What does this fold into?
Amino acid sequence: MAFKSLDCITVEDIAALGISSKVAEELHRYLTDIIRNYGNTTAETWKNISESLLNPDLPFSFHQMMYYGCYKDFASDPPAWIPNPENAVMTNVGGFLERHGRELLGLRYRDPIYSFSDFQKFSVLSPEVYWKLVLDEMDISFSVPPSCILRELPSEQCHLSHPGGLWLPGAFFNSSRNCLDLNGRRNACDIAVIWRDEGEDDLPVKRMTLEELRSEVWLVAYALETLGLVKGSAIAIDMPMTLTAVVIYLAIVLSGYVVVSIADSFVPNEISTRLKISDAKVIFTQDFITRGGKSLPLYSKVVDAQSPPAIVVPTRGSSFIRKLRDSDLSWHAFIDRVKHSKKGEFTAVEQPIDAFTNILFSSGTTGEPKAIPWTHASPLKAAADAWCHLDIRKGDVVAWPTNLGWMMGPWLVYASLLNGASMALYHGSPLGAGFAKFVQDAKVTMLGVVPSIVRTWKNTNCTAGFDWSSIRCFSSTGEASNIDEYLWLMGRAFYKPVIEYCGGTELGGGFVSGSLLQPQSLAAFSTPVMGCTLFILGNDGNPIPLDKPGIGELALGPVMLGASHVLLNADHYDVYFRGMPIWNGKVLRRHGDEFERTSGGYYRAHGRADDTMNLGGIKVSSIEIERICNGVDDSVLETAAIGVPPLGGGPEQLVIAVVFKDPNNAMPKLDQLKMSFNSSLQRRLNPLFKVSSIVPVPSLPRTASNKVMRRVLRKQFSQLKKGAKL
It folds into this structure.
């Protein structure tokens, strides 16, 4: 759609969007004043339009008219949000730099906004100083302090184990205890969790103080002790992210066991795979899930997965829908083991910093998910990212619709509680007006999203009429973002910034992000995260200069607090380091995404460089999908699964290339075949997966060694989208 420059927009143009003539005249008068004061196409023009002219009640088409009109002739990466100096010094990093900037950066330090990039580089060059100060800022306490922050090892010692060195050597620590401890930044009466059950949207939100949360976690920790498990045993959680699930999570870590994260959307064979890899001894689950007004079975899937003994939490207001197995316990029977005993504070099991706390899973390209252990250092990385890049602090209310089966579930626990903020949980679907009202009523200050959720909100307009003015910033992760959808999202909260945040389960957090101290461009990242260096590999496989624009496969500097150094079911060095280039004497860490550094200094994600795709925030290998699709219909010879970004950007869409056994004979209709593919994928792999389109091809492109060249297909399909809808 073509947009006029701002000075060409008339009252009639505005009224044509469905705005009354009187309001259109008033808006045009304000617009004329802004243009007179700030120009026709400057960042300051947009800043004043977004702050003083636009509001959520105006049609989104008017927001688009203003944004695209302002930046019609602007260079790349137009800023959708610009920090101001007064607010900058109030942020965590801004205040930190005001106190320590001159000491750390010397005469280069000017102010938080001007010096932020220098501070990020300092965090990479001086990790010992940076991390010591930040951990102190967050009031992190060790039962045994580390001998140092980082012990870098000679290359011959770290070759296969710790290419990034040893972090916090000698430290003993419990991340759950640190979430629950009282310290100078929080007290027992502070609100730790705010929640609401779907269907109770007209009732006040529920609140739990830190003291109440401590008591609940201690009770579950004592009950865990009655199971007689060896310390370090794995205990799975397959539940929606409710208050009870969070209490169980914290209790497992507090008492020295290891959480096994399983998403509640998984089908039985996926549950079974994760239970076997982790050797889980017990699983916590729920009888069924209530979401969007529907009841979805959960305990029955765990039974079908032939799980170890289960502890089954009842869904609110329900009785069990089936008889428990003899080996299983109801939640009430489990808690009753210790409920009436007089026990005080549970003594946390302090462990070495490298002890496992959580086993999470990320799909590889071989079909079996990689089992990635988080240690006690991983929560520190998650919380520090939140402290620095999302400005989470005491008094904040943090909501992010997610699940403990994915890294953002544990991330949310640590990012909020370790920073003294309140965690906001909605027990139900985040896709409707109930969640939008919860954001209003809980007075959420940081709202995390994935683009598919935002797309649903925009398409259904379910946020209309709700006051989101308490939001200070959004954050987005999991998928590629869409500019129009995120312009709409910002407009719901009077143009608060969207902080894009991208990382990995194996990192415990992010590697690239935005910042409240930098201008933010839509669907773009403004900085590597603190303590991280990004490398874009050129065609020769070596890094291009760090300050030059370019596009290629992404690699990371190996020195990152919280990053993994072991996998349970694969060779960690082979997966992340073998064959990677050396930079300044250190082997770079493989990530696998294709990234671009723009001429304006921003970063943009372009999907996986390998054959793993991202569907709805879930990484999955092409091979896993193809294995199922190949057996759906006898007429199918072979398939190739490709993730293709839609026009205008956004999350990848699943396209299946199909080679038929005999294209001259009767073949199934493509619509019918698509339905069959979807049915099988959702039943056998993940109910959230959906085929966007099917493309018949005579054969699949292959290398000389007979490997399918999915990148060639991805390029072809992307070009097709430009000319016609697939």
